[in-house]
Specification:
With about 150 residues, the protein is an alpha+beta fold. The protein folds into 2 domains: about 1-30; about 35-135, Immunoglobulin-like (Sandwich), CATH 2.60.40. The chain has one helix at about 1-30; strands at about 35-40, 45, 50-60, 65-70, 80-85, 95-100, 110-120, 125-135. It is globular. Bound molecules: zinc ion (2 copies).
């Protein structure tokens, strides 16, 4: 009986200790990391057309770099990369990112991931992922809007 109590007490201590540890380090990181909110991307796109990506970014330590990586889930070698290291999105604390990324005519059809990564002045990163279907079916563009 005594042994059981000791073990459960030990477990409780370990749990409490690791919980405090986890929540502490989370607080430290999350408060100054870049934040990506209201993320939008076109869910489907035809080869040869462009893909709408729009999101709010806030970064206490200022935005230093934005990486957009679009990779095929079916053809692991196929990747489209866009990197922004200067211009209106860089060296600011908040911005509305809005770009149309060209999908080449020869892009293989199928499912893609888009990985959107923001790096701040301290080298901290925050990422967001969305799924895209590259399809040859006729798409009714529901994200048509005035392009700036
Ligand atoms: Zn757009
Ligand atoms: Zn992926």
């Amino acid at each position: 009986m005594k042994k059981i109590i000791n073990i459960s007490l030990l477990m409780a201590l370990v749990c409490a200790f690791s919980f405090v540890n986890i929540s502490c380090s989370d607080d430290d990181d999350e408060s100054t990391k870049p934040k990506i909110t209201d993320f939008e991307c076109s869910p489907a796109v035809n080869p040869g057309k462009d893909l709408h990506v729009e999101t709010n970014i806030t970064a206490v330590e200022k935005i230093k770099r934005i990486d957009v990586e679009i990779h095929s889930e079916s053809d692991s070698d196929y990747e489209i990369n866009e990197t922004y290291t200067n211009g209106k999105y860089i060296d600011v604390q908040n911005t509305l990112f809005h770009e149309h990324i060209d999908i080449p005519q020869d892009a293989p059809l199928g499912e893609y991931h888009l990985h959107f990564t923001v790096t701040d002045g301290k080298g901290q990163t925050t990422s967001h992922k969305c799924h895209i279907e590259v399809t040859d079916q006729l798409l009714i563009h529901n994200d048509d809007h005035d392009d700036e």
